[in-house]
Design a protein that fits this description.
The chain is α+β, with helices and mostly antiparallel strands. It is built from twelve helices and seven strands.
Length: 295
C-alpha cells in the first residue's frame, strides 16, 4: 500500500485507502469511524482556511486538535475575527471579504466537498455561518460540517500560531495521513474562559461545555479558579449580548438528560466513563461565585 503525500489531498480520491485508514484508526483510538472521517475533513478545511486574514480558530474542536491530545471529536469548526464591541455592521462586513472568497472557493479547492449552505451573515453581521457536505466513505450518506465565525468581540489574549493535528493514521505505517495544519488559534486560557462563559450563560445548555471544563481540570491540571482566568471570564461575560448566568435546577436537569445522548457518541469509552457531571457543575458553580465576588 503506497504511503500518501500528507501535504496534498490527492490521496483522498483513493476511497478504499480512506476507508481502510478510518477503520484502522478506529481500532487504534476507540473513536467512532464516522467521527474519525469527519475529523480528517475538518483538518482539510482548516488547511484551506488557515490563510484567511484575521481568522482565529477557537472552540471545542480547537481545544481537542490544538491544546490537548484528542479527548473528543466534534462536528463543526468555530472561529473568531476579532472586532471591537462597538464596531458597525459595515465594519464587520468589510472584515469578511477574504473569508467570503475562501468559503466560495471550497468546492474548487476541495472537490470532495460541496457547499450545503453558502456563507451568510446573521445577528447584524456579528456572526457568519456556512455548511460544507461530503459523501462518507463509511456510510455512503452525506455528512455535514458547520462553520461558525463570530465578529462581536475582540480577543483578550494574543492568539497562538499552533498546529492542528488529525487522528487519521495510515493503515500500513501508522503514520499521520494528514500533516498538521499551522494556523492562528485562541490561547488555552481564553478558550477556557469562553467555555466557562458558555457553560454559565448559553441559552440552550450544552453538555460539551461542561465536559471541556471538567477535562481541563481533571486531565490538563488547570486551576479554573485562578485569578487570571476568573478575570478573563468576567471580561467575556461583560461583552454585550450575553445572557444572564443560569445555575438553576432546570438547567442542571437538562444537562443530565444530554449525557448519554449527546456526549457518549463523540467520546472514547474511557473518556466518557471518566466524566463526572456533578464535579463539572461544582467547578462551574465555584467559578460563578468568584466571578460575582468583588475584585
Amino acid at each position: 500500500m503506497k504511503t500518501p503525500d500528507t501535504e496534498s489531498t490527492g490521496w483522498l480520491r483513493d476511497r478504499d485507502l480512506l476507508r481502510a485508514a478510518v477503520a484502522f484508526t478506529a481500532t487504534q483510538t476507540g473513536f467512532a469511524v464516522l467521527l474519525i472521517e469527519k475529523d480528517s475533513i475538518c483538518t482539510l478545511l482548516l488547511k484551506h482556511l488557515a490563510s484567511v486574514e484575521g481568522l482565529v480558530f477557537k472552540g471545542g474542536t480547537c481545544l481537542a486538535k490544538v491544546h490537548t491530545s484528542f479527548y473528543g471529536l466534534s462536528e463543526d469548526l468555530d472561529f473568531v475575527i476579532p472586532m471591537p464591541t462597538g464596531a458597525t455592521r459595515r465594519q464587520r462586513s468589510a472584515r469578511t471579504t477574504d473569508l467570503k472568497r475562501a468559503v466560495a472557493e471550497l468546492p474548487a479547492k476541495l472537490p470532495m466537498l460541496r457547499l450545503v449552505e453558502r456563507l451568510r451573515g446573521a445577528n447584524d453581521s456579528r456572526q457568519y455561518l456556512a455548511a460544507a457536505g461530503y459523501v462518507s466513505v463509511v456510510s455512503g450518506l452525506e455528512e455535514t460540517i458547520t462553520l461558525e465565525i463570530g465578529l462581536r468581540e475582540p480577543l483578550l489574549e494574543v492568539p497562538l500560531s499552533a498546529d492542528a493535528a488529525t487522528v487519521l493514521r495510515h493503515p500500513a505505517t501508522n503514520a499521520p495521513l494528514i500533516a498538521p495544519v499551522r494556523l492562528a488559534c485562541m490561547s488555552l486560557r481564553e478558550s477556557l474562559a469562553e467555555k466557562a462563559r458558555a457553560a454559565l450563560t448559553r441559552r440552550d445548555p450544552a453538555i460539551r461545555d461542561f465536559f471541556d471544563v471538567d477535562y481541563a481540570a481533571r486531565v490538563l491540571g488547570r486551576d479554573l479558579g485562578e485569578p487570571a482566568l476568573i478575570e478573563l471570564t468576567r471580561a467575556k461575560l461583560a461583552v454585550p449580548g450575553n445572557g444572564p448566568i443560569d445555575l438553576s435546577a432546570e438547567r442542571f436537569a437538562d444537562l443530565r438528560s444530554q449525557v448519554a445522548a449527546r456526549l457518549r457518541p463523540v467520546l472514547r469509552p474511557t473518556d466518557f466513563a471518566a466524566f463526572d457531571l456533578d464535579r463539572a457543575l461544582t467547578i462551574v458553580s465555584t467559578m460563578a461565585a468568584k466571578i460575582g465576588s468583588p475584585r
